[in-house]
Prior knowledge:
The complex is a heterodimer. By secondary structure, chain A is an alpha/beta fold. Chain A has helices at residues 7-12, 27-31, 53-60, 77-81, 101-107, 115-135, 137-145, 148-152, 176-190, 215-220, 241-247, 264-272, 292-295, 311-329; strands at 19-22, 42-45, 66-69, 88-91, 110-112, 164-168, 195-199, 211-212, 224-227, 252-255, 278-281, 300-302.
Amino acid sequence: MESQLPQERSKLRTKDLPQVLVMKPPPLLTLFEDKFISTKFQLLKAWESTLPLDQFLTTYAGSVRAVLCSGASPVTPHIIRLLPSVQFVVTASAGINHIDLNECRRLGIAVANAAAVFSDDAADAAVGLLIDVLRKISVADRFVRRGLWPAMGDYPFGSKVIISLFVCFTQESWDCRTWKHRSAVAKRLEAFGCTVLYNSRKPKPWVPYPFYSNVHELACGSDVLVVCCGLTAETRHMINREVMVALGKQGIIVNVARGAIIDEKEMVVCLVHGEIGGAALDVFENEPDVPKQLLQLDNVVLTPHRAVFTPEGFMAACDLVVANLEAFFEDKPLLSPLIDE
Amino acid sequence: MDSIGVLMACPMNSYLEQQLDKRFKLFRFWTVPDKSSFLNSNKDSIQAVAGNATAGADAELIEALPKLEIVANFSVGLDKIDLAKCKEKGIRVTNTPDVLTEDVADLAIGLMLAVLRKLCESDRYVRSGKWKKGDYMLTTKFTGKKVGIIGLGRIGMAIAKRAEAFSCPISYYSRNEKPEINYKYYPSVVELAAYCDILVVACPLTKETHHIVNRDVINALGPKGVLINIGRGPHVEEPELVSALFEHRLGGAGLDVFENEPYVPEELFGLDNVVLLPHVGSGTVETREAMADLVIGNLEAHFQKKPLLTPVV
């Protein structure tokens, strides 16, 4: 049986409005659907159909030129094969690990993401998490709420905010525009007196910090490792046991990027055995599952993948995604394309 | 110097206690059952007092110690010391500035981020297993929020410098405008509160600044405003703060200090828009040691007739 297409689609639909395929709604769309009403395109909402996805795409998406995707609806080579007319993929997120970039590159499909508008919130969350784990803010807040302050006296101290830190950048290609986004964390932490070092596949001449070609070496010289790079085949489990042991017993890891950049099983072992000092984590390998051992530790801070989830950030992301889509359909330059180095 | 009697007003730091014990004749005031008879018996031996944010040297104690020459404070705040009395009697007073500036400023920013981004609540959400049942809510952006600082001394300036890195416009209230500083000045705390999104208390506690954050200021800060207190509990009219939070006249609060430490109004325990800390502003291992070294350094300098390291009086 053919599915019923949504009423609003038939209201808005004119034969001229090009369609943007959405397989599953990203959180942005669910929260701010109004912002996606445009005179330049209309949404083809696959999730509202009772047809299995493959069949829906074959039946309805043959002439679709643009896709709005998200972590829950990845753009794989298989999906791309079912979309013979696709020329543009935009994601409403900062992360792009759910898009097969090689395949897109091969077929000349343009890709855009929303990293630009999320960098402030992600950096704020990273710094907040770091101060929290070092100064034991969440632990101390629990201590007070349990009524332990009068009974137990002063809370055991935290440690001074770091003197030198290692900011881990993507090993994938990025240019001096995306550097501005990565540097949001570094800029904030410099105001606290931190020294910033970085790692990347190649040194970037526009980056004012000391470069380390090797993640392990960098961890040796650092107190804190802030992971804010993309998840790729190269960065998967980049933060492994060796790197963590190099970071050391006082070392702290902050992750607001993707869980799989860190070898989570090894990290749990290191934390439980005191081989690293602590961790502040917004992301995990198997969300929403968090390793049980972490729930018992006081030297970790755990947040449920909300680093970029503010209404302000989301609304700006909606605007950016819509602007990219409209630019695409008007044959104008995209606002936030991913560019190869 | 181990014949010189030093009275430690309350437990404050075990490293400091050890050092004082090693170098001087240490009297632990909190272990004494009958304080007035203790003072009577030992008044001729006590030449120094080590105080902190909880207990220092009030007029009564100063009068009871005729041989008192110096009060060395394990804190930068001087609200527990009767400075006028000390001046009158020629008693020196020292504190611990600078070494703790960064820690307190770091904590102020940490509190702002924790309140606005609900970090402690999110952590609770994960630990309780609720994430498996559903996503956590959106939280408020911190970057770009207007930060208003009451008191632009060392700590206030350090907070401003950090907040600027988050693109926060800075404004302040202070007894006098500082024309050399490029931040927006407001001649009253109410006006400052009306303008800013996040109001931080960073001034010394004196008679004039007692309850400087009152009902009017809280109302001016408003239902989206956040109060951060890293000063002293008595800077804020605490019952007014509690009722404003309950009545949603104030958006949130990050508090490191309270009027009656270690007692915190229990009504706050159930709120998700507050973060409550047990006076840990300067509470890092490194800084507390540096503060203790300053206390010892000042005491030794005094009794060796050398210049004091960080004199106030």
